[in-house]
Amino acid sequence: MRLRAAALASAAALSVLGAAPAGADAAAPLPARMADTGGGSQLVTAEAARPDATRGTVTWWDLRGGRWVAAGSAPARFGAKGLVEGGARKQGTNTTPTGLYGLPYAFGIAQRPVGTGYPYRAVTPDSWWCQDNRSRSYNRWSQPRAADCRAAESEHLSAYDPQYAHALVIGFNYDRPVRGRGAGIFLHVNGRGATAGCVSVARDAMRRILRWAEPERRPHIAIGTTSGRTALTRY
């Protein structure tokens, strides 16, 4: 009984730390080792080595014949203050929320890349993303800017070039927004350095992702670390 209890305790500890469960194939593709991939046949993973990292890798995957196959990858940037569990994140902390999220639609200052099948919204001078906790439009595209959404508490999308040349909305805090948790988390084009909480890749990689993504295959994005409490294998 003591040996069984020790084994159970060890397994629980590994689960907390994000290690692969006993018997799991460590050589299996990352999505095959995850607890959940969103139920679709496409997935984007954004992986950092540690919670305090500001760089990592974005990989996009296809489920083919029951096996996950990498369709492409690119160096990625994360929040200036690293990554934090999505459910515990606070707005304005410059942290990227970990977790598994939908990708509602794409947008951009630049034209939709040829071959893009994803819903794509064109940014105009009237396009804003409301981050005002007092607004009914919190964590939503607002065009024109809603009367109850203060400009100082929002992003004027057309002002963020090259970052928003092309972007995908990450469904963090999106379906049922919690005030103070954060708004405007996207997968977008690199700026000069780390992000304010988004995930970013080079412009060419962003265009490749947009051409690859197929809405009918229900792609999701999983953001996390290689191991630990925010390990991708926990999502």
Description:
- The protein has helices spanning 2-16, 203-212, and strands at 42-48, 55-64, 67-77, 83-85, 96-102, 106-108, 120-122, 128-130, 140-142, 154-156, 167-169, 186-189, 199-201, 220-225.
- The chain has 235 residues and is mainly beta.
- A hairpin with a 2-residue loop joins strand 2 (55-64) and strand 3.
Break the fold down into its secondary structure elements and pairings.
Layout: H1 2-16, E1 42-48, E2 55-64, E3 67-77, E4 83-85, E5 96-102, E6 106-108, E7 120-122, E8 128-130, E9 140-142, E10 154-156, E11 167-169, E12 186-189, E13 199-201, H2 203-212, E14 220-225
Parallel strand pairs: 1-14, 4-5, 6-7, 12-13
Antiparallel strand pairs: 1-2, 2-3, 5-14, 6-11, 8-9, 8-10, 11-12
Global Rg: 18 Å
Strand content: 25-35%
Q: Terminal Cα separation, in Å?
A: 31 Å
Mean pLDDT figure? 92
- Output the helix-strand order: HEEEEEEEEEEEEEHE
